[in-house]
Amino acid sequence: MSHYVILWSFETEEEEDEIEGWSLGYISGKQLDVLTKGDTVWLVYVDEFRELFLIGRLEVETVFDDEESTVAFLEEPLKYKGKEGSQYAVTKRNPPYTMRWLSISDIAHRLRFDSVNNDRLDVDDRNRVNFRQFRRRRKLSDEGIEEMLRAWERISDKRVNVDLLEDYDSSTTYREGHQIEISKRERRRNRALISEAKQRRFDEDGVLICEVCGFDFKATYGVEYIEAHHIKPLYQYDGVEKRTVDDIALLCANCHRAIHSTNPPLSIEALKQRMDQQGEHK
User: Fold this and answer.
1) Which of 54, 58, 170, 183 has the fewest other C-beta atoms within 10 Å?
2) C-alpha separations of 14 from 10, 18, 23, 203, 270 in Å
3) Tens digit of each residue's pLDDT, the chain (282 residues)
4) What is residue 238's predicted lDDT score, i.e. its pLDDT?
5) Which of 241, 245, 268, 239 is nearest to 255 (CA)?
6) Residue by residue, what is the 3-state secondary structure of the chain?
7) How far apart are CA 69 and CA 76, in angstroms?
8) Please, which residues bridge with residue 139 across strands?
9) Please, what are the domains in the chain?
10) Residue 180: its pLDDT value, please?
11) Are 273 and 212 in contact (CB under 8 A)?
12) CA–CA separation, 71 vs 56, rounded Å?
């Protein structure tokens, strides 16, 4: 059973924003002919800042050469269709893994591939990579597989990565025989702004810690993780507004959720005051 890394491409910006939470029942492409039952595909994406993201995982059941066979196997229409000549790799996992956004730039230099002359990525001193290194599928070595599995634990189905979430409302649906249609309208977040805010803080301080309580994920769990909070909630925007990294606060998961426990959300200073008051009462 082999593990492959494949670069995901988006047809539209809307699709890029909408994949969070998609059930990954299949993938399409022209590099799938090598896949066999039991193989695993890791989907990655490289953004405009050359940050590497892990966005999906698919355990292969079989590969079809046509759309009709794929639809018959999945027993539902395809959410997206492959280009002419594409193959379709499908999973039998029920439910399928859901797609997430997780930056794995911090492990890019440790990924190893099954190749004699090209077994690693070219990574600069800021952990940035060039997407061209994934123009073709890449087979992971045993060491590379372990790195990806450890990364996947951070976005497993048991936990939702809320890096880009602000309202915590669940829109997950479950299939139980009936068909439903959901329409959702929301303010679009800019992942580039979030990435820049985190990168600037890391460049300045050498660490990513919560601005309220000082919690350090790296020191506690060994993972570089922090959540981004819009100081001015997106629902208060008057249409599209320009924002800078100064409009983003970096928080741990607990403080982020605490801030959004009230409506309107608490300010950073208000939450700090509450924590100080709790400390005085102990």
Assistant:
1) 183
2) 9, 6, 17, 31, 35
3) 899 999 988 776 666 666 777 888 999 988 898 999 999 999 999 988 888 999 999 999 999 998 899 999 988 888 777 777 789 999 988 888 888 888 898 899 999 999 988 899 999 888 889 889 998 899 999 999 999 999 888 765 434 333 333 343 444 454 454 444 444 443 445 566 787 888 888 889 889 999 999 999 989 988 888 888 888 765 555 555 567 888 889 999 899 989 988 878 899 999 999 998 887 555
4) 57
5) 268
6) CCEEEEECCCCCHHHHHHCCCCECCEEEECCCCCCCCCCEEEEEEECCCCCEEEEEEEECCEEECCHHHHHHHHCCCCCCCCCCCCEEEECCCCCCCECCCEECHHHHHHCCECCCCCCCCCCCCCCCCCHHHHCCCEEECHHHHHHHHHHHHHHCCCCCCCCCCCCCCCCCCCCCCCCCCCCCCCCCCCHHHHHHHHHHHHHHHCCCECCCCCCEHHHHHCCCCCEEEECCCHHHCCCCCCCCHHHEEEECHHHHHHHCCCCCCCCHHHHHHHHHHHHHHC
7) 11
8) 4
9) 3-155 (3.10.590), 191-281 (no CATH)
10) 42
11) no
12) 20
d(CA 6, CA 233): 35
Buried/exposed 8-28: b ≥16 CB within 10 Å, e otherwise: beeeeeeebebbbebbbbbbb
What's the token pair of residue 112? Answer: 């190893």
Tokens of 129: 């990579």
| Cα(245)–Cα(126) distance, integer angstroms | 18
